[in-house]
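hiii so my PI (J.) wants the whole complex modelled not just the main chain, which honestly fair. so below is everything: two entries, each one labled with what it is. i double checked the lines twice but i was tired so who knows lol
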Amino acid sequence: MTKRLAELLSLSMFLLIAILLYKSTMNFPEVVQNSTAAYVRFLAICFGGLCLLAILLRLKSKSTEENKKLDLAAAPVRFWSLLILMFVYSLLLEPLGFYLASALFLPVTMVVLGARKKILIALTAVGVLLFVYIVFAKLLGVPLPESSLF
Amino acid sequence: MIFQALQSLMTPTSLFAVFAGTVSGVFVGGMPGLTATMAVALLIPVTFTLEPLTGLILMGGVYCGAMYGGSIPAILLRTPGTPAAVATALEGYPMSQKGHGGLALKVSVISSFVGGTFSVLILLLIAPILAQFALIFGPPEYFLLAILGLVGIVSMADDENKLIKALISGLLGLIIALIGTDPISGMLRYTMNMTDLYDGVAFLPALIGMFSISQMLELTGTKSIIFEPSTMKKIKREPFPKGLKKFIAIGSATGTIVGLLPGEGATIAAFLSYNFARQHSKNKKLFGKGNPEGVAAAEAGNNGCVGGSLIPTLTLGIPGNSVAAALLGGLLVHGLIPGPELFTKYGVMTYGFILSLFLANLIFLVIGLYMSPYFARIAFTPTELLIPVVCLFSILGSYAMNNSLLDIFVALLCGIGAVILQKTGFSLGALILGLILGPIAETGFSQAMIMGNGNYAIFFDRPQGIILWLIILLLLIPPVIQIFRRHRQK
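here's the output for the full assembly
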């Protein structure tokens, strides 16, 4: 996908949001039609108007810079792997609990990102979990996600 | 009375309380997910068993330390420890990337010290007079204050294309801030029946996602945060840059004034100071690329908020921000009711507490100056070890605020969203500004409209409102003229 197309797609999506936002104020109670509904309508008009203007400027522009491919990441495999691992880790927090999920997430992510020294990986993972246990759980009493299975 | 207060502060217990509070504050501020409000609130039960002055000193130390501590990960990892450090990250992180992380930390700690000390001095000298000033601000003025903050968006752009995208980003932030409960009717809006969204999109997870997670995703393509590892040797030896006094002064004054307005927080103070610095800088082009002037103004601004926010708290019982509200809780549990009595009957304790804040500023200055070269070494950690650890703390930080798994997904979505928006030329700074100012702008606008019976004249017919309009125009005209000039030159 080119940068130009990505921009046009985002702007069109924003324009749609502006229209839906404006329409949604009709369902607001009568009592707020002159206060919060007016504010939302004001935002929707400004947002939609600016998106329309940006789309027109983009269509008019003939810069070659914008026809370049949109590169989200310098290392796509690592980028998407990290994102997927973070989503999986977040999903595992509830069934496995914080410590078990983190004990899996840390070493796996380090290896995926290119770490190879086993001792360094193990020490970092254990050190971080110990730190969280002592400071967050014991010292400050911050509640951490607990396992629903065990 | 001040002499007696000084005596009560010079006991070993009080001195230890200031030290312990400030060190804990720097630590709490430096950890994403642990906020100064949380730490002060956690300390309230602890202070039950302590002497009232010791308890207050402890909480004051945490407050001062946390305001500074937030800048450390913001500068080194682009992960703001506290929301107030976002503006610092805008300039501090690019400085770290260029190998000047040590210098950025030095600028940050000195500016934080000056801003914090100035605001505490104002608190000590003219607290009751300034507290009256906060009372003349009504809903129309709060709306205008939000607009004043949003003017910063215009100065974030240097051509009309970027200006339009920055404005769209700012409006997107304001629109995201609409999610939650209507402040006037109590009606739920755009919550998709998710109870976790009833209070709106949690600000800290969104912030962690946009700044920290997006940055970790970007770093997957590099071996180190720093572009040129050869710059490592420079860390200890860089002198303090000249010409920063003006920007520290701007930040200190802005932070103190914004701090004393109830409901306005250190985040807004830091952004406003950053914006003012940008307007007055001779190196405008360097902003966003690692300008120490931006770090100086933002840090002086958020620390300037400490003394400022305590003025209405101690004199009127109206907390200047959420940390001051938690501190107010600490005062009340000890039977100390805000008002004139606090400065007469309980004067020794109140002045002792205020004087302890000077000491807290001095302690974090020493910690910061001595430790900054060591902190800065974080930037040399290999990314394959750093990224998973920062991601874990980002996810933990997002969860810890409300114990909500949804907040983690908010952070992740904001992270990937931020990468896409940045690559397509939108402004994250403007989006964050919109998100911060959204609730203030909406509540101010809606309440003002009710006050004025639907008539927009309410925003123009009060002297304080007119002054704010003038400031807005003064800030708006120069960048707009510059953009038009550049357009003509093209």
